[in-house]
Amino acid sequence: MQKRLVQKIVADSSRPKLANFTHDRDLKNGKEEWLTPPEIIRAFGPFELDPCAPVKRPWETATNHFTIEDDGLAQPWSNLVFCNPPYGPKTGVWLARCAEHGNCLALVFARTDTKAFQNHVWPKATSLFFIAGRLSFYHANGKQGGTAGAPSVLIAYGPLADQRLRENKIIAGHYLQNQPAHPFGLRPQIQNN
Ligand SMILES: C[S@@+](CC[C@H](N)C(=O)[O-])C[C@H]1O[C@@H](n2cnc3c(N)ncnc32)[C@H](O)[C@@H]1O
Fold first, then answer.
1. How far is the CA of 129 from the centre of ligand 1 (A)?
2. According to a count of CB atoms within 10 Å of the terminal CB, is the N or C end of the chain lower?
């Protein structure tokens, strides 16, 4: 009896099925074009600028857009920015710019252990909103993809973005005011973004 129970637990803990998960480090296939679900833009917008928008996009995410052809990192940013940046190693560079701009709502995976999070979110963000469940991002053709491979978080840099998170009554999740100067956060920054 006991042996059968152990066998069942071992069987149930086998590798989870990932077939329906997308949008997680699929960089080798050029899968950077994972668009923010429009209900997120509607709930937390409007925004003045999306500095990393697709060249061909099915809807507007802000009043103004920069694309890879402009290189949004090389351009001046103004007013409230919405930034769902390219994923992978480049994410930290974009979050650094969001923090430097100081008037930005960023959408990234809630990977709180990463260097990008340790260096550019916990020590710099005003507040965070951890979205309940998993988002399904969109392809550039406007079709919805599968469930994302990780949970998402909105990160507010500055009072206006923070206000958008506080006033949200549409998207389910957990609001967290950040304490950038918390003594346990004062360890040396992890290198390499
Ligand atoms: C995760 S998608 C998000 C798209 C859009 N911001 C949204 O929220 O729906 C990242 C986008 O960044 C664009 N991108 C990549 N490098 C860029 C750069 N240097 N400057 C501007 N956009 C860039 C990609 O083409 C892609 O459309």
1. 21
2. N
Q: How far is the CA of 191 from the centre of ligand 1 (A)?
A: 24
Q: pLDDT 10s per residue in the chain (193 long)?
A: 444 433 332 333 333 333 344 444 444 444 579 999 999 999 999 999 999 999 999 999 999 999 999 999 999 999 999 999 999 889 999 999 999 999 999 999 999 999 999 999 999 999 999 999 999 999 999 999 999 999 999 999 999 999 999 999 999 999 999 988 765 655 555 555 5
| 19 vs 103: CA distance, rounded Å | 37
Listed in sequence order, the residues at least 6 apart from 142 whose beta carbon sits closer than 8 Å to its beta carbon are 58, 59
172 Cα to the center of ligand 1, angstroms: 25
Q: Which of 187, 153, 189 is nearest to 40 (CA)?
A: 153
Best substitution site from 48, 67, 94 to test ligand 1's pocket, by max atoms within 8 Å of Cβ?
67
68 CB near ligand 1 (under 6 Å): yes
What single-letter amino acid sits at 49? L
